From TrEMBL:
InterPro entries: Rhodanese-like_dom (IPR001763), Rhodanese-like_dom_sf (IPR036873). Residues 38-155 form the Rhodanese domain. It comes from Marinobacter vinifirmus. Residues 1-20 form the signal peptide. This is Sulfurtransferase. One of its GO terms (molecular function) is transferase activity. Keywords: Signal, Transferase. SUPFAM superfamilies: Rhodanese/Cell cycle control phosphatase (SSF52821). The keyword Transferase applies. Pfam families: Rhodanese.
Length: 181
């Protein structure tokens, strides 16, 4: 019986060990503090499509805008009333290049940020972990934050996120940091 239990535990451990690691979140405030204290030792990327940044805003705290997904304006989803978004085929190569430009490697801390944190922030961080990067996190609630559930501003993105945390941002993107294919 002991031998069976040991075999079962070892098998479970091997299966559990084979599962991909999941990225952890950081608050916008913690991210900003990390950028201020150890910015040279980490890569902070905005993973939104640059057109989205043009309409929502940007923070110069990021090192670079490297979209995880790009909008395909030739395909529209009538049911969801949105354009299709496809994986940026060059995402991993562009992250590698950004790391190299800062003298960093795939073991360095990478923090991703999208609009809300869940649609591309976490998925992009998880994707990088799957691709062999070892220390990837994402900004919880992203740049714009969550929508208010009630009150005068119900449905507006005025809850949490980078913009709503009093952190520095601007309505215009920095031309030196914005993605240009």
């Amino acid at each position: 019986m002991k031998k069976f239990m040991l075999t079962a535990l070892l098998a479970f451990g091997m299966v559990a060990g084979a599962q991909a690691e999941e990225a952890l979140s950081l608050t916008p405030e913690d991210t900003y503090k990390m950028v201020q204290e150890q910015g040279d030792e980490m890569l902070f990327i905005d993973v939104r499509d640059p057109v989205e940044i043009m309409f929502i805003g940007f923070t110069n705290a990021v090192d670079q805008n490297i979209p995880f997904q790009l909008v395909d304006r030739t395909r529209f989803n009538d049911e969801k009333q949105v354009f299709a978004m496809d994986l940026n085929e060059n995402f991993v190569a562009e992250v590698d290049a950004a790391l190299e430009a800062k003298g960093l490697d795939r073991d360095s801390l990478i923090v991703t940020m999208c609009r809300s944190g869940s649609a591309r922030g976490k998925p992009s961080a998880d994707y990088l972990l799957e691709q062999g990067f070892t220390n990837v996190k994402y900004v919880d609630n992203g740049f714009q934050g969550s929508t208010a559930k009630e009150g005068e501003k119900k449905g507006m993105r005025v809850v949490n996120g980078w913009q709503n945390s009093g952190l520095p941002w601007a309505s215009k993107a920095n031309p030196e940091k914005i993605y240009r294919p």
